[in-house]
Automatic annotation (TrEMBL):
Domain of life: Eukaryota
Organism: Scleropages formosus
GO molecular function: calcium-dependent phospholipid binding; metal ion binding
Keyword Calcium belongs to the record: yes
PANTHER family for the chain: COPINE, COPINE-5
Name under which the protein is recorded: Copine 5
Keyword Protease in record: no
Length: 500
C-alpha cells in the first residue's frame, strides 16, 4: 500500500516528578520495530523539554507500525544507556499518532512501578512535496541586558504554527555569548520543516538570554512567514532583529512509496495478483452468481482524491460518484487498479463511513426482497473502532452481512473482535441483534506450494460459510417467508447484493 513520508515530532515532555527525581539533562529515544531509530538532542536542566529533533518515517497506513519512546536523564557523554537514569517510556503505533485528533497524541509515560513519570506529547504531519531548503542569517541590535554581571547570551528559537493554533519548535540557533548585538551563524532548514510548503503559514521567533540552569530569560518575539522572509533583507524593528541574508535551494529528490513498489501490499505485479485482488476475485466470483445483472458498486476508503486532495472514506473506485457500478469482478479489478493511479492512499483507516453507507440502502429495503453483502478487504488497521462497532450494532437489525478479509502480516485483534463469534459485539451497552460479521485472515489460506487457485478456493469457502445462516436469521426474525415468484430488482445498492 502507498505510504506517506510523515515527520514524527517530539514536542514537550511534561513529567510530574517529585523534586528528588529532578532531571538535569533530558534525552528521548525512538525505537522503530524494536530497533533504535534515533535519539533526540539533550536538553539541559529542565522537566519540560521541547525537542527540536524530528524524524521522517515511512508511514504505511495498512500496517501496524509499533513504536517505543524511552526517556533518559543524561548524566555523561557516554552513549551507553545503562550509564544514564531511565525516566519512563511509552508504546504506541504510528497509526495512533496520525489518527489522533489533530495528529497529536498525548500519553502518560510508564515503566517505573509506582511512579508517575510524566506525559509525552507526539505530533505528526504529512510532509509536503516541497524540496526547497532555506538558508538565512540574522543579527540583532540593542537587546535587553539580562545578565546581572554582564550583558546577554542571546539565542533564537523558531516555531511554526499548527492548524489548532499551537506552535511546534523547528529550529534553535547557537548561543552568542556576552553581547547585546549578536550576529548568529547562517543556518539551513528545509522549507517543509519551517512551514511545510505553506509560504503564508505563521512563523514565530523568540529571542532568549541563555542561562546555565535552564531558566532562560525571555527577551522578545516577532511573527513572520516564509513569504516575508523570502522577500529579502528585512528588519523586525520592535526587537531590533535583522535578517541579513536569505537564499533558497532545492534538496535532492526522494522517491515516495507507491503501489508500483514491491514493499506495498497494493503492489501491482504484472505477473501476479496482489492479496487484495486475489481476495476480491475469490469471494466476488462466487457471490456474483446471486446478482442478476452482475453490476457491482465498488467503494474505496482512506484516500486523498483529485483534484483538491479531499480525504474520503467512501469513494467510488471508478471515480464516478453518480454511477459507481462496475461490470462483474473484472470491472471491479480494473477500477481498483485504475484508482491506485489516480488517488493518494491516506490514513487514518475508518470503517464506519462505508458500513453506514451500505446500511442506509439496506434500511430502505427491509421486506426481504433484497439482502446486502458488504465485502471489506483491509490490512487490519482501524482508526475508528468505537464508531465501527456502533455502526455494526445498528446494521445487525438490517438485511445485510459484512465479510472482512485481512491481508498482510499485521495483527488482526480488532477484526477478530468485530467478528463477534466468541463475544457478541456491543456498543454503548447495546448488543448486536445478530452476528453479521465474518472475518478471515488471507495469510491463513496461502497454499505453501504457491497454488493461488487453491488458496482462493479455500478462502471463498470459509469466508462465505456463515452468509446463509445470517441471511436466514434475518428472514426468520422478520417472519419473512420465501417468495415463490420473485420480482426483478429495481434499486441498486453500494455493495455486493443478492436478489431473493
Amino acid at each position: 500500500m502507498n505510504w506517506l513520508h510523515t515527520p514524527l515530532f517530539c514536542p514537550p515532555f511534561d513529567p510530574f516528578l517529585p523534586l528528588v527525581f529532578l532531571s538535569s539533562h533530558s534525552s528521548l529515544l525512538l525505537f522503530f520495530s524494536l530497533v533504535q531509530f534515533g535519539r533526540t538532542e539533550v536538553i539541559d536542566n529542565t522537566l519540560n523539554p521541547d525537542f527540536v529533533q524530528k524524524y521522517i518515517l515511512d508511514y504505511f497506513f495498512e500496517e501496524k507500525q509499533n513504536l517505543r519512546f524511552d526517556l533518559y536523564d543524561v548524566d555523561s557523554k557516554s552513549p551507553d544507556l545503562s550509564k544514564h537514569d531511565f525516566l519512563g517510556q511509552i508504546y504506541c503505533t504510528l497509526g495512533e499518532i496520525v489518527g489522533s485528533s489533530g495528529s497529536r497524541l498525548e500519553k502518560p509515560l510508564g515503566g517505573i512501578p509506582g511512579k508517575k513519570c510524566g506525559t509525552i506529547i507526539l505530533t505528526a504531519e504529512e510532509l509536503d512535496n516541497c524540496r526547497d531548503c532555506a538558508t538565512m542569517q540574522f543579527c540583532a541590535n540593542k537587546l535587553d541586558k539580562k545578565d546581572f554581571f554582564g550583558k546577554s547570551d542571546p539565542f533564537m528559537v523558531f516555531y511554526r504554527s499548527n492548524e489548532d493554533g499551537t506552535f511546534t519548535i523547528c529550529h534553535k540557533t547557537e548561543v552568542v555569548k556576552n553581547t547585546l548585538n549578536p550576529v548568529w551563524q547562517p543556518f539551513s532548514i528545509p522549507v517543509r520543516a519551517l512551514c511545510n510548503g505553506d509560504y503564508d503559514r505563521s512563523i514565530k521567533v523568540e529571542v532568549y538570554d541563555w542561562d546555565r540552569d535552564g531558566s532562560h530569560d525571555f527577551i522578545g518575539e516577532f511573527t513572520t512567514s516564509y513569504r516575508e522572509l523570502a522577500r529579502g533583507q528585512s528588519q523586525f524593528t520592535v526587537y531590533e532583529v535583522t535578517l541579513l541574508s536569505f537564499s533558497c535551494s532545492v534538496l535532492p529528490p526522494t522517491l515516495p512509496g507507491n503501489p508500483s513498489q514491491s514493499t506495498s501490499l497494493h503492489y501491482m505485479n504484472p505477473y501476479q495478483m496482489n492479496a487484495y485482488a486475489m481476495a476480491l476475485k475469490a469471494v466476488g466470483e462466487i457471490i456474483q452468481d446471486y446478482d442478476s445483472d452482475k453490476m457491482f458498486p465498488a467503494l474505496g476508503f482512506g484516500a486523498k482524491l483529485p483534484p483538491d486532495g479531499r480525504v474520503s472514506h467512501e469513494f467510488p473506485l471508478n471515480g464516478n460518484v453518480d454511477n459507481p457500478y462496475c461490470n462483474g469482478m473484472e470491472g471491479i479489478l480494473e477500477a481498483y487498479h485504475q484508482s491506485l493511479k489516480t488517488v493518494q492512499l491516506y490514513g487514518p483507516t475508518n470503517f464506519a463511513p462505508v458500513v453506514n453507507h451500505v446500511a442506509r440502502y439496506a434500511e430502505a429495503v427491509q421486506d426481504g426482497s433484497q439482502y446486502f453483502v458488504l465485502l471489506i478487504i483491509t490490512d487490519g488497521v482501524i482508526s475508528d473502532m468505537a464508531q465501527t462497532k456502533e455502526a455494526i450494532v445498528n446494521a445487525a437489525k438490517l438485511p445485510m452481512s459484512i465479510i472482512i478479509v485481512g491481508v498482510g502480516q499485521a495483527e488482526f485483534d480488532a477484526m477478530v473482535e468485530l467478528d463477534g463469534d466468541e463475544i457478541r459485539i456491543s456498543s454503548r451497552g447495546k448488543l448486536a441483534e445478530r452476528d453479521i460479521v465474518q472475518f478471515v485472515p488471507f495469510r491463513d489460506y496461502m497454499d505453501r506450494t504457491g497454488n493461488h487457485v487453491l488458496s482462493m478456493a479455500r478462502l471463498a469457502k470459509d469466508v462465505l460459510a456463515e452468509i446463509p445462516e445470517q441471511f436466514i436469521s434475518y428472514m426468520k426474525s422478520r417472519a419473512i417467508k420465501p417468495n415463490q415468484d420473485p420480482q426483478p430488482c429495481k434499486s441498486k445498492d453500494p455493495a455486493l447484493h443478492t436478489q431473493i
